[in-house]
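re the bet — no i am not wrong, look at it urself. input seq straight from the record:
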Amino acid sequence: GSLIIMEPKTGKILAMANFPTYDPNLYNKVPQDQQKVFNNESVSAPWEPGSVFKPLIMAAAINDNKVQPDTENVFGSSVTINGYDIHTSTNEAYGRETMTEVLENSDNVAMTWISELLGKETMYKYLQDYGFGRKTGIELDNETPGDLKEPKKWSDVQRATISFGQGITATPLQVLNATSAIANGGKLMQPYIVEKTIDYSGKEDSRSPKEITQAVTQDTAQKVKDMMVSVVVNGHGKKAQIVGYKVAGKTGTAQVPKPGGGYYEDRHIGSFVGFAPADDPKFAMIVKLDNPKNVDWAEASAAPTFGEMAKWLLTYMGVPPTENQ
């Protein structure tokens, strides 16, 4: 698993952890077949993020004035695109939904409709603005850019699946940074781990926060932030709730691709990305758990892990409660 915590307003990485890990004092004792633990998987191990991607695509559609949070439509349990069936995760039809309910229900069929409204070129533009397909530039070795193909190489099926986080790969840091832009009024920041350096003479060189781009407008970011709060209160993110605080977030239960194509039936990656307090975020966090046992959905694995860590952080930072819950 991997867990990263950052400050949305600055891009500062407050914490980054991966498991399994190793003892740096005994690194030479790590068996050869386990030396993958030397990699920092938060920046070097891209995966198909799954549903944690949905708020980003929803933000693109709202920003492009294709939908609003209260836009309604009726969606079935599946949709067929070029002979390929896309189902809701539960194989249930959710019927008439607002766009907020689409995120609460994590509806793949509805997201496919949104991808049609946006089109390949527009989706690609927003994904670039969120920082996908390129390295973040953090001061760590072995960072990978993930895989974001040019839109001319997308099939209609791929356009649809990207809207719910399949057919594209990204690192945990990229997904967290893009979500932090929603927390930060639409501004994508440069992530960094070194606040300042002090040379041998005592001279200090401080690092200033750097804005990369305005990925979506402040108005769009506020709308999606409210929608993500609703996901935690009413949707699959309930186990990330913290009494007294407004938490924004989204679960993701991603399939694991087979080397020869298709997906494993018995493996998944659970993730949760979010921020708190939602109205003035002090931190954003991603939790990614590879193939957790005895649970089928991220709402039972990554979401409670997020909630436990976020509760500790709010206490540690001395953030006073704002909600009467």
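see?? The longest helix spans residues 218-234. told u. also The radius of gyration is 19 Å. so pay up
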